[in-house]
Amino acid sequence: MTEERIGILYATFAYLLWGFLPLYWKLIEHVPAWEILAHRIFWSLIFMVMFIVLIRRWHLFVAEVKSLFTNMKTALGISAAGIVISLNWVTYIWAVNSDHVLDASLGYYINPLISILFGLIFLKERFSRIQWVAIALAFIGVSYMTVNLGSFPWAALALAMTFGIYGLLKKVVQLNAIFGLAIETMIVAPIAFIYIASLESTGGGALGSSWWTTLILIGAGIATAIPLLLFAQGAKRIPLSLIGFLQYLAPTLMLLIGVFLYNEPFTTVHAVTFILIWIGLILYTYERVKFLRQTG
């Protein structure tokens, strides 16, 4: 098997796991989103530390941490990244467990378009006409949903915005996936631990309430880390243009799960909104592939 095929398998499995992640959070929908987030952060750090030790990269990890925090810009960048990805995680958990899986799907469809908009605003990147049309279609789609459903899809926009900001911050501090997740969770883990400890000390925590809930909460670290590690292995082996296509696998699975498994309403308004955004994404992906071919 060629390296590219291996890379496709890694990346596909990563996006499949991300797409099916709503099923995991639904197992503990009785636990508040902020408590699940605290456990996700804490157990992700524990798992990543164990993994780094297992692959004998601890000395490199320590050196990376020391290097990062000797520079104020990188220290602020990685700290902000840890906070922003935590906000993204809690919004996603809340959306799934509050029967807004469609909003989560919509958010991750919009995300690539938000990212190119951030590129214009913060990185002074230039847009092509096709990219402008793609962003305009997404804006029209969200506006159409807001007017016709009478409510703003804030969860979808929050997911897209936080993940877009996270991507922007990662450009400031470039880290490999393994060290990046470990350091980001390490920054916010003390807060997560204090929150968990305070809940458990008052008897209001979910940890230990049942063996099943405890297992799922601890497993949140593995559920977070495994797809990221698979993605990192895949991204090293396949072209960026192929990653661009595969990234829509996860929100498509979320959409199907929300509609067919959890019976969330998919109205004509939803259909029009999603179609407008899908057309925008097709245009964006076409433009991206064309650019990569010209420069490659």
Verbal overview:
With 296 residues, this protein is mostly helical. The protein has one domain (3-295). 82% of the residues lie in helices and 0% in strands. The protein has helices at residues 3-26, 33-54, 58-68, 72-97, 101-122, 129-149, 154-172, 177-201, 211-235, 240-246, 249-261, 268-295. Helix 4 (72-97) runs antiparallel to helix 7, helix 6 runs antiparallel to helix 12 (268-295) and helix 10 (240-246) runs antiparallel to helix 12. The mean pLDDT is 89. It is a multi-pass membrane protein. InterPro entries: EamA_dom (IPR000620), EmrE-like (IPR037185), RarD (IPR004626). Belongs to the EamA transporter family. The chain crosses the membrane at residues 7-25, 37-55, 75-94, 106-123, 130-146, 152-169, 176-197, 209-230, 242-262, 268-286. Keywords: Cell membrane, Membrane, Transmembrane, Transmembrane helix, Transport.
Q: Key features?
A:
296 residues, 12 helices, mainly alpha, globular, 0% strand
Topology at a glance:
Layout: H1 3-26, H2 33-54, H3 58-68, H4 72-97, H5 101-122, H6 129-149, H7 154-172, H8 177-201, H9 211-235, H10 240-246, H11 249-261, H12 268-295
Helix pairs in contact: 1-9, 1-11, 2-4, 2-8, 2-9, 4-7, 4-8, 5-6, 5-7, 5-11, 5-12, 6-12, 10-12
Task: Outline the low-pLDDT stretches.
Answer: none
Give the biggest sheet: none
Number of alpha- plus pi-helical segments: 12
Structural class: mainly alpha
Q: Could you say which overall geometry the principal axes of the C-alpha atoms support?
A: globular
User: Mean pLDDT, as a whole number?
Assistant: 89
- Rg over CA atoms, rounded to whole Å, is 20 Å
- Terminal Cα span: 24 Å
Q: What order do the SSEs take from the amino end to the carboxyl end, as H and E? A: HHHHHHHHHHHH
